Amino acid sequence: MLSPMLERLVVENIGEDLNSFLQSAAALSDQTALEVIAREDIPAAAILATRPDLSNVVLAKLFQLNSRKVYRATAGNTAIQPRGAYLSALARSAQMDHIVAESLAKRSDFDAALLAPAFFDLSDTDRVKVIHAFAHRDTPIAPISKTIEQLTVASADLTKALMKLFSENRRPEVTRLLSQITGLDEVRCGQIAHDVTGASLFVILRAFGCSAYDGLKVLIHATSHDSERSQALAEFATLFGNVTPESMAYLMSARRGEVNLLELNKPEYRPFTETSRRTPLAAAHNPVVDRAIEALARISLRRAG
Q1: 136 domain-assigned
Q2: Cβ contacts of 54 within 8 Å, gap of 6 or more
Q3: Are 216 and 289 in contact (CB under 8 A)?
Q4: pLDDT in tens, 217-264
Q5: Rounded distance, CA 40 to CA 232, Å?
Q6: DSSP assignment string, 129-198
Q7: Domain range spanning residue 293?
Q8: pTM for this structure?
Q9: Residue 91, pLDDT score
């Protein structure tokens, strides 16, 4: 370990090897770290942000740089606990930078519900992770809830219409329908209509009160037909039971930028139980999935007859 004085001499004279030194040094004094940050040398600050031994004083100064590179580095640094002001800063950054959102989605110590505004920037797996974060959880009343209550369309009519449109591959019409009932712009609704994983559509179906049985009938038509389809449907069947329509309405409002997601950190909005890691469910043993598939098979037979 170097003394602060020797560190300072090294930093002042090392030239192009500064970043390598900052990354590999066994220890680094706060004084040296703060001097590097004061230079506003963003690449060097981003290297600093990856270190596991940063003090709160140094972290505070790093976040004040308001740099995308620095935020990306801090998002991937699991030694930095996402609490208080750091949590707020990372959550805001995730709304504007999909790389930050992707890094945070991979962390077990970050509340994935705070990534709702970045929902469409996330991978298929991470979108489902965001939905899971709303399981067994109360949420503040969502602004879009009033819109949903005022709509005359019943959930049964909605699922019937969507099932027909998806079965006939009329996705542009699905886009227009979703835009009319959700208030989301057509670009977003187009993404939902063409999302063959079903995660985006699940949010809307559950927000409008669809049951697992009716919702799965829509998802069966809307999703791709690959080998993982049954497992995905089984997972959605579980989610229909674990997340409330109110929480999915809140997720919709978050995607519209209408809520302050940091409210979810209040004690009354924490999950009731600690949810476990996603456990793959065998679709063959999920009666809700089986009944939905059987119902669709009967419909197909009647049409063929």
Answers
A1: no
A2: 33, 48, 62, 79, 80
A3: yes
A4: 999 989 876 666 677 888 999 999 999 999 999 999 998 889 999 999
A5: 47
A6: HHHHTTTT---PPPTHHHHHHH----HHHHHHHHHHHHHTT-HHHHHHHHHHHH---HHHHHHHHT-TT-
A7: 144-304
A8: 0.84
A9: 95
